[in-house]
Amino acid sequence: MPTIRPFQAKDRAATALVYYRAVREGAAGFYTAEQCAHWAPSPEPDDAKPSKLLDQWAWVAEEGGQITGFMSLAHDGLLDMAFVLPEVMGKGTADALYDVLIAKAHAEGLPRLTVDASVYSHGFLKKRGWHVTWQGDRVYDGVAFFGYNMALDLPATPPVG
Fold first, then answer.
1. How far apart are CA 9 and CA 3, in angstroms?
2. Quick one: DSSP state of residue 75?
3. What does the angle CA 125 – CA 12 – CA 21 come to, to the nearest 5 degrees?
4. How far apart are CA 132 and CA 116, in angstroms?
5. Does domain 3-113 have CATH number 3.40.630.30?
């Protein structure tokens, strides 16, 4: 099982690689080559832009000293980033990150979480009680992506157990 800890600036290159591989390898069966290339053009972070993960609540999963996944939650309740390496997909890494994210949302008193979910992440979230509020194509720089807007209403008190 991975160790979950807060994201740090030093994790930027490792999370960029996780993002790239999650899109290009892990979710590749759900997207065209053009979509994958547009979504994740490089395994390197864009150092010309600041890391948005530093302005969000963000966590990384580590196993054997390697970052294997990460998730982030914006302060307005947007589940912004959720990616794991292909070799750990389905092995509990995303679950562990998600549990920490949900605990933080409860601790901050957020009543509702939202997400712009990919076709790939839709199933993961649906199993955890998220519901679709919109679905359809979005066009980014001329490249269309099918996706979902989803939401999760949080109870005032976190569930026990």
1. 18
2. T
3. 55
4. 10
5. yes
